[in-house]
Amino acid sequence: MSAKEFMITWSIDSIYVVLLLRTLIPYTCLFLSSLIPPHIPVYDKRMGVIRVFLSWDVEWFLRIAGGGYSTEARLAFFPALPFLLREIGIKGVLALNGVLRIINAVLQIKLCRHLNRLAGEAFTPQTIRKLHFLLIFSPIAVFETVPYTETLFGCLSVMFLLVYSSMTLYNKKVQVLGYVALVLIGMLMGLVRNTAVFHAGYFMFGVIFLSRPIGELILSGYYFLSVLLPLKRRLEQYYEMCIPLKNVSKIYSNIQNKYWGVGLFNYWKITNLPRFLLVLPSTFLCLSYMFTESKKWIHSVCRERNVFPRPTSFKFAVATHAFVLTSIVVFLANVEILPRILLSSCPSILTHVPFNRSTIYMVILISTLGAGLFGAFLPWT
């Protein structure tokens, strides 16, 4: 069956069925992965299937939830998820992730439709079916299911993009409410993950192209501070000393480098080649998306003889955000985290996935195989 025939015969148009399958498939894959012997023997001591939900960074979040930031390595992780684990437990977080994945899917559909409308592009039935398929077999489904930050951060990212991209469509009173919402979203983002700082780049888009320099500059600085100020407090509590704000990012980078080898080209070793191969699809997707949106921007410049993109070119800002994240992860960080970082920060990039027979099989394979690798404590983090 060709991809075109598949999309024609793909009959799951009901959003309720999509949401049900989106919830059930990752749990099924994780439960099946419990049959695989764990890569690290200590995990044999865990009873039942619960161990498949506790691989990789989940251990760190649980330790912080139970003992706080008592070691230097724990300072690399942000406090929102440990707080939830401490207050509602691991079962509560799993249930919360299930609810947030449903909300996230509904908002992603709304966001993709909205961005297409802003760009003057049709949101065709084929695009809807493709998006439904990708929401069911999400490449990062396992990270949105287990106690990771992806579900919470993904929801906040979608809300951010929806609110910010809609502000030009309403009057000033509604825009004020939009700014208030962005402040609240930024505060929460700063407690979830350090990549919240990159959302500040969208406000630079507003400064240059939307004639809202004052409000955008304030929000841009706020999103940086939403990450740096809580981080500064955690560092000061651990080191028991006053730390200037300008030194916070340097100290945090040193911690990342010391315990995870994060640094320029530090991960570029022949032994890590399989991990680079794992993220090739995400890398190519980002580069293709950036190329496509840049070409549209250049075409707009040539047609309108205006070097500034129109306010409707918001997809260009999303593509730039995705490109910056991809570049930083590939050159500086543990490269295997790219899919979850990229798709939770820039969820609308899913609509750019080329749909042919190869990608259909690849998406299903990545979604299901990823759960198995994660559950067996193999490199899928």
From TrEMBL:
It holds the Pfam family Mannosyl_trans2. The chain crosses the membrane at residues 15-36, 177-196, 202-225, 316-338, 359-380. GO terms for molecular function: alpha-1,6-mannosyltransferase activity; GPI mannosyltransferase activity. Keywords: Endoplasmic reticulum, Glycosyltransferase, GPI-anchor biosynthesis, Membrane, Transferase, Transmembrane, Transmembrane helix. It is a multi-pass membrane protein. Pathway: Glycolipid biosynthesis; glycosylphosphatidylinositol-anchor biosynthesis. GO terms for biological process: GPI anchor biosynthetic process. GO terms for cellular component: endoplasmic reticulum membrane; mannosyltransferase complex. It is found in: Endoplasmic reticulum membrane. Its EC number is 2.4.1.-. Belongs to the PIGV family. Mannosyltransferase involved in glycosylphosphatidylinositol-anchor biosynthesis. This is GPI mannosyltransferase 2. The lineage of its organism: Eukaryota, Metamonada, Diplomonadida, Hexamitidae, Giardiinae.
